[in-house]
Design brief:
Pfam families: PHO4. 78% of the residues lie in helices and 1% in strands. With 549 residues, the chain is mostly helical. It starts with a helix and ends with a helix. The mean pLDDT is 81.
Amino acid sequence: MEFRTIDKLQKNALKRSATDFTRLGFAIFFMIVVLTFTFLNNGGIPNSMFLAVAALIGAYMAMNIGANDVANNVGPAVGSKALTLTAAIIIAAIFEASGALIAGGEVVKTIKNGIIDISAFDSHPEQFIWAMMAALLAAALWLNFATMMKAPVSTTHSIVGAVMGAGIAAAGFHVVNWETMGSIVASWIISPILGGVIAALFLFAIKKSIIFKDDKVEAAKKYVPFFVAIMSLAFVAYIILKGLKSIWPKIIDILNFIPFVSLQTTNDPTFMTAFSIGLIVAIFVYFFVKKRLYSGLTALENTKESVNTLFTIPLIFAAALLSFAHGANDVANAIGPLAAINDAVINGGVSASASIPLWVMGVGAFGIALGLALYGPKLIKTVGSEITDLDQIRAFSIAMSASLTVILASQLGLPVSSTHIAIGGIFGVGFLREWLHIKDENNHTIEEDTLIIMDEELNKSAYKHELKILQDKSDKTQSDYTRIVNLYKLIADEKKIIKSTKKNIKKAKKVQYVRRDAIKKIVAAWLITVPAAAILAGTLFFTIKGIMI
């Protein structure tokens, strides 16, 4: 029997090793293709080998973004079983790549959020190239490590910390925009709190209006169209403001070709424009969903599980749209520094923004998709099921939080991180579940149990006092002896009630729907992301500088 077990373990280990080597082979093949293509495509310019190596590192960074960051978009949908892992990877890969290629932007800021003052490199473009290369590699290595540790971290914070560290190493502390860094630190607190509060409020609203009702089917007919319409409004506005802003002027130009349409061309979509378009879509969605529900709910059972199924399709749309917006925005984390290096190598100088060739955009887009397909499942499972248990309603609330928090924060000028918002949303629904459990189905709270204990303690004290009086009585009657026996029984009963109630309180307090070890690991990773990436980037800069000089 033991030999069979050992043999089985060996076979499983060999199978796992073969899978790991296959994944590594695909990743290395992609990076070699990028390296070769870049070198051959730019072989006639000085420092072309540097550019080729930078492209290889950019490809490595893009794959790590796919492996780590994309899990936040599809993890809740997978955890709730609205999507299988394979379907989620396919949808996310397609929409991430589409978002990057279609709406990734023709011009990307080379230094994310103005972290460093690039004028310090005007007379030293080669040091700028080394710094950007060090930043790319440091951010990619940190993301790789975080993925191995199953910790979802912000790729934006990773590249920001890396650019800061490389900039300090190259030009000193004065090169850093500390005000911007302060806003990054603020986002560590603002993002998860906002995401958690909004997700918890939506989950509570759905529970209060549908799940807690006696007739859940009738309540679902009334409120599900409303919640899906709000989701449509939020996501349309989110996609316009965050996913399509780089190609907005082109969209306006196309719309102006339609008869009787005359729109003013603007560089970025305004909030009112996004909200108005979202509202029109939301009204259409409301009546469409309402009609479908009234004609298709006859077979629906009056259970929470049945109501959950109504949120499956909205969740699939949410995962796709979040992936599209993420690809459009976060591709800059992979190719921003690469675009900066490309511009510096070709033009021999340093600029605040750089045109991005299609091949550079392709490196980011396909790198993210490949990284997700090869190494994404680990983080998708962590986000979807290893922090708290999710169903479709909880995952729907998290998706709502992801879009609404970004919109709200952008209008208030608050710095936020999409990764921290999504994880904060998961924490929020988990802690709400704990709070609802404490208030259990009969509204029987810990406070009420505490009052019961106090009442029983008073009764026990009264019985003990009466018992003492009777025991001290010299001329006891038969009724006194009977009462003494009864008092002993009453005191014993009170002790049992107090012990049982204390046990209930202890049990209620022990219930944890959010895994505390996951919280500690994720928060620790968040806190050290910027400094860790900065130190690593500074070290890599000096290493590259030492090799080149």
